[in-house]
C-alpha cells in the first residue's frame, strides 16, 4: 500500500511539473527556466524539455539560474 501511494504521488508531481513547464514555455522567450530547485526546462519555440539536476553519490547539485545549469 505504501509503495502504491508513493507511486501515485510521483506521477501526480510529474504531471503538475509538465503542466507548469508548458505554461512557462508559452509565455516566455526561448531559454532556460527554473521549475524547481533541482529541475529546469529548456524552452524552444514554445515547447519545453524538462531536465533534472544529476545527483552524484558524494554531492547534490541544484539549478543555478544565474549560470543556466546545475552546480553545487
From TrEMBL:
Superkingdom in the source lineage: Eukaryota
Keyword Amino-acid biosynthesis: no
Pfam families referenced in this protein's UniProt entry, alphabetically: CBM_14 (PF01607)
Endpoints of the signal sequence: 1-20
Species assigned in the record: Magallana gigas (Pacific oyster)
Record InterPro entries: Chitin-bd_dom (IPR002557), Chitin-bd_dom_sf (IPR036508)
Domain Chitin-binding type-2 stretches: 25-71
Name by which UniProt lists this protein: Chitin-binding type-2 domain-containing protein
GO molecular function, one term: chitin binding
